[in-house]
Amino acid sequence: MDIVGGLAAVGQALDIAKQLREFEKSFADAEFKLKIAELYSALSDTKMALADAREAIQETDSEIKRLKAVADSKVTTVRIGQYNFGINSDGKPSSLPFCPNCEQTQGLQIQISRGTAGHNLSKTANNRKWRDQDRFWQLGQTGESHVRRE
Hints:
Blueprint: H1 3-22, H2 29-73, E1 77-80, E2 83-87, E3 93-98, H3 100-106, H4 127-142
Antiparallel strand pairs: 1-2, 2-3
């Protein structure tokens, strides 16, 4: 039962309670018991609706927390050509580009290397800087000396 249904059940229970107060002694005992049974039914519907609403609110809150954590963990980026690059404090690119497909479809910031998965990095506006960053990154990974290769 949803929140609207729960509110309707509350309204129904209140109407029944109001009718019970207005009963005169002339009503039969069976009719009084019938109204009490209707009241119990409406109150149990209300209780279920409120439990469902509490569960829905908890699920929504946990999803909001998860999405905030994901958003907080992402790197600030700048778009150059068709790629997003992580930026440093002065606003200049400081990382390898992120996979545009991964960013758009999964919301992930996965850095790519030149030419993988069909990415054509030679068309970026910052191609020379990208090549230099790529060489520096590769040298740092392999421990080689800083010898320029062409």
